[in-house]
Amino acid sequence: MAAKNKLAGIIDLSLELNQVKDLDILLDRILTEARAIVNADAGSIYIREHDRLKFNYTQNDTLLDALPPGKKLIFSSFSIPFNERSIAGYAAENGEILNISDVYELPDNSPYTFSPDFDKMSRYRTQSMLTIPLTTRRGNVIGVLQLINAKDRKGRIVNFLKSVEPHLVHFANIAANAIERANMTRSMILRTIEMARLRDPKETGTHVQRVASYSVAIYEIWAMQRGITDSDVERDKDILKISSMLHDVGKVAIPDTILKKPDKLNDREFEAMKSHTWMGAQLFADTFSEFDEASSIIAISHHERWDGSGYPGYVDPMNGKPIIGFELSPGKARGRKGEEIPPFGRIVAIADVYDALSSSRSYKAAWDEDRILETMRSESGSHFDPEMIEAFFYSLDVIQNVKERIPEDTED
Predict the structure, then answer these.
(1) CATH 3.30.450.40, applies to 2-181
(2) Which of 42, 127, 271, 307 is 20 to 30 Å from 19 at the Cα level?
(3) Which residues are catalytic, by number?
């Protein structure tokens, strides 16, 4: 009966996983749910990139419990060859599940080895390990799910039961197909960004991925401080991650003479550039989902300022004209201020400015970190929501880690 209940639970999870659109949010959810099935203390996910496995995500309750509330584990991305020499590589290469009772006690004739580097660095002790290939319905291995240190009811490290293996294989197959779908969604968005890049060299795939990841990091802390429920946070993270990548998509409507000008824009040109906000919102006027709605909100509001001096203000996204009753002067709309600006717009404003100041462009060099942080702090209450700036600084270690893992395009 317990096995039937577990299988039914996994089927229910498959429906939930297929609702998640963003790849990173999905990987986090997959790892969380897989660990819950077998009560694993830690785990990692590797995603296949050509002939290598990239270490994409990790969780570790023991190490996380040692951190202050709201803090996350910081990890470095790396990749290993897609071959049999590592445990993950062997599972991927052969399409086999590996259930190891103690990775430090592998037999001398084992075809794979365990690297203790992470354990030494973190002072963690990996013992039992369950490694499952992520195989799609077409039979393609697209990655590896690795679960570490099963725990019994008293919190003691034990072996992973053989009886859970069929359930984990079934879950891994479901997860693999969800990952494949999320990869397709991300690829379509990045192709859209690449199309925009043909018009605007500054609008790069790495820029939008960083802004999206920064935004989620800020939102998680702000939401925790606001007491927003975990279920709402999980839903909002997915929506925010996808929609924030499209914050500047309206720039495709800006003339090349302005968009590609290497020098500072004059007043007339800057006024034209401002229209990318409501033109971006216009692209999502036919709202079919929460993602369309959020994309429209972020596009039109991410240049608003907390003190009301931003743009475009209260305008009709279909024509850019001031909404009746919100004119500041003839033909000019009043800016949104304070909490009139939607939360997602306030968050992306912070993430976008931080990345812009951190990045080199044809007309400027990247600022040094101290100067950036001093500027961000000084803009609290004028440009930025004071609460969200505090969330930005609290999550700064995660944000700086993202900046290291998603570097600038070399041609940017």
Answers:
(1) yes
(2) 42
(3) 251
